[in-house]
Amino acid sequence: MNILITAATSVSAHRLKNKLNDQPVLLGDHLELPAFMLASGSVISLPTPNSAAYTHEMLTLCLDNDINTVYIFRAEEARLLLKARQLFKEYDITLIQSDEI
């Protein structure tokens, strides 16, 4: 099982990743990422929260990447994903907002 941390370009995401160094962690962001970050395979592009299907796109991404925990650092992502917390829970995916860390 993997952990996803959003806001891959933020200092907070990297601090958390360092704390979780003994677990498989993916960083992701919906903002444009440099190619060298994506090439490593430990950073992925996330769907944009502006998408009407954002919640379902994130659920699919989690299932495709065997992600069981998502740490959410961007407010617009948290607002949308936390509304669907029960849906993610049904698939054994835990959503954690940055202020819950």
Q: How would the blueprint of this fold be written?
A:
Elements: E1 2-5, H1 11-19, E2 25-29, H2 35-39, E3 43-45, H3 54-64, E4 67-72, H4 75-83, H5 85-90, E5 94-97
Parallel strand pairs: 1-2, 1-4, 2-3, 4-5
In short:
With 101 residues, this protein is of the alpha/beta class. Helix content is 40%, strand content 22%. The protein has a single domain (2-100), classed as Rossmann fold.
Please tell me about this protein's structure:
The protein is of the alpha/beta class. It has a single domain (2-100), classed as Rossmann fold (3-Layer(aba) Sandwich), CATH 3.40.50.20. It is 40% helix and 22% strand. It has helices spanning 11-19, 35-39, 54-64, 75-83, 85-90; strands at residues 2-5, 25-29, 43-45, 67-72, 94-97. It has a five-stranded parallel β-sheet with strand order 3-2-1-4-5, with helices on both faces. α2 (35-39) links the parallel β2 (25-29) and β3. The radius of gyration is 12 Å and the shape is globular. The relative contact order is 0.20. The mean pLDDT is 92.
